[in-house]
Amino acid sequence: MLKCLSVSPHIMAPTSVGGPLPTHSRVGREQQRYGIDGERLVAGCIPVRLSISSSGPEIVSILLITSRGGKGYVFPKGGWELDESCLEAAARETVEEAGVRGKLEDAPVGRWEFYSGKAERVHSAHKGRCIAHMFAMHVEEELSSWPESPARKRIWCSVPDAIQKCRHDWMKDAIRAWVKSIDREDLLCNSASMAL
């Protein structure tokens, strides 16, 4: 029951690298945004790196991080809070969880519905339903230390490898949607997306 939802046209301002590095991740749900039906709203990024190989073609790599429990690879994402825009939440979650900063693409890749952990499904009014607003981030800075560095590992992958390694189907769909949005379906199956 995973599906891509329409994008939010009011979320378009670009965000770039810079600013002070947070010393810790935000925790708690006191400032959490919820949708009209009680679903938890989250924001996240597909961190990408574009470079030119010595033979000339552009190389595209995607950054994945280990989940907090260490069970597979995911994208950085987390709660969209009341005191920030969706873009700000996506950038904040990405630096907190993945330790990278960069420029977000103006338009969101899309919105995906998913269901979070078992405990939240049982104990919450929204039964764990979440809506993830995902953006592509062109990484400009990779930090050696970041708030969640003790709990997470990073890996740069080719586009096909990122799809294969992603733990969640909706995240795989987000990669495909981003590739389609930049009109580069060739990245899904050939060496143009090989890892650096």
From TrEMBL:
SUPFAM superfamilies per record: Nudix
A cellular component term, taken from the record's GO annotations: cytoplasm
Keyword 4Fe-4S: no
Molecular function as annotated in GO: metal ion binding; pyrophosphatase activity
Keywords: Hydrolase, Magnesium, Metal-binding
UniProt keyword Metal-binding present: yes
Domain Nudix hydrolase: 38-179
Cofactor (UniProt): Mg(2+)
Entry-linked PANTHER family: DIPHOSPHOINOSITOL POLYPHOSPHATE PHOSPHOHYDROLASE, DIPHOSPHOINOSITOL-POLYPHOSPHATE DIPHOSPHATASE
Entry's family note: Belongs to the Nudix hydrolase family.
Protein name as it appears in the record: Nudix hydrolase domain-containing protein
Upper taxonomic lineage: Eukaryota, Viridiplantae, Chlorophyta, core chlorophytes, Trebouxiophyceae
